[in-house]
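Hello,

Our lab assistant flagged a job as stuck in the queue for most of the afternoon. It eventually completed. Since we weren't sure the result was trustworthy after the delay, we are filing this so someone can double-check. Below is the sequence as submitted and the structure that was eventually returned. Let us know if re-running is recommended.
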Amino acid sequence: MFLQGNQSAPNGTGSDPAMFFLTGIPRLEALHLWISIPFCSMFIVSFLGNCTLLYAIKTEPSLHKPMFYFLSMLAITDLILSATTMPKILSIFWFNSREISFNACLVHMFFLHSFSTLESTLLLAMAFDRYVAICKPLKYVTILTNSVIGKIGLAALARAVLPVIPLPFLLRRLPYCRSHVISHCYCEHMAVVKLACADTRFNNIYRIIETIFIVGLDLMFISLSYVKILRAVLSLASKEEQLKAFSTCGSHLCAIFVVYTLVVLSSTIHRFGCQVTPHVHILLANFHLLFPPMMNPIVYGVKTKQIHDQVLLLFLGKSF
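-- returned structure --
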């Protein structure tokens, strides 16, 4: 067992543990090597896909538009989110390297929650971009200037980072006199809170309010944007114009569906799925982190002609 050389750490009574231990996927330890194959494959596809997407947008002048600037921000966010979690997960699967220091765990958790929030906020910004493009097409260039896009990007970053800053401090003030074994592949806030031997109601309430404030508001404003977009599209004279207008939203709608379906499903199981076995929840949580960063460049590459053509030009050396 991985704890044999460190029995005092996970079973100790120190209130500020020097080390935590990540379990990986409980009950499936014997399959970790096999599970690592799809995980590693998704990570590689995500990394190559988002890098290719960024290169295509940077090198093709016709892609220097607000929609693609927001897409670049999303690609960078997905790269950081994957790079924050996957190396540790794979080290558990491949090398049984389960140890993580308390401070490293807090940093890990900070980046994980910050960039997950940023991903949601950028999807909201992209919904606003589609709203302006379809509902106010004559003002699109004047509303979404480079300066405005930069300010939206900074505001999104601040909105993602500021609510997460208290979490490490809230965790640091708690005593950890129980097990130091985190039943997860990475340092997720609630998984760490469960190890505390003190009243954690404030931590739980804060995290629930933060999630509702971020995900709830994002979903509400995205839905509102698409209600107005649908009205504007249906008011167009011909079916051809309607399909052309709505087709510009196809990639964004796919990204929203992929991200928020997994967010809602994972959160629901975590809060109310008492009968769901832990390994199912942890597999779903990992899938939630890996699948959207992998799918976003694929969806936009397939559905957006300018990106599709630029990627083909990059790899095949010919234009289409």
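-- support follow-up --
The delay was a queue issue, not a problem with the job. The result is valid. The first strand starts at residue 19 and ends at 22. Residues 1-14 have pLDDT under 50 and may be disordered.
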